[in-house]
Amino acid sequence: MIREEHGVDKDNIDSGFQYCFKEDFDEHAEKAKSLPESTTNESKLILYGLFKQATVGPVNTSRPGIFNMRDRAKWDAWKAVEGKSKEEAMNDYITKVKQLLEEAGASA
């Protein structure tokens, strides 16, 4: 373990930060379930791609066939964010959920 000048255990700080960040992500994943029906498919696909990148990592399946449009669109959304780290994807997901909730509140 790395010790800093003041006896603070950097590993514990990092894991504590990651835990809080994961909790925030999980909280926003729950909030995303209550987005209004008026949320666009484009926004839902962005959230889907970010969620998969944050929880699974890079795309690990073959692209669905042309006749499976729904799953193909979801796969494409996930592929579009490939290369983002887990933390980047979580952060972008949280930001997008907040944005959509604000927009929903403003239009209510």
From TrEMBL:
SUPFAM superfamilies: Acyl-CoA binding protein (SSF47027)
GO process annotations (BP): fatty acid metabolic process
Pfam family, one: ACBP
ACB domain boundaries: 21-106
GO MF entry, a single one: fatty-acyl-CoA binding
Family the entry assigns: Belongs to the ACBP family.
Cross-referenced PANTHER family: ACYL-COA BINDING PROTEIN 1, ISOFORM A, ACYL-COA-BINDING PROTEIN, ACBP
Listed name of the protein: ACB domain-containing protein
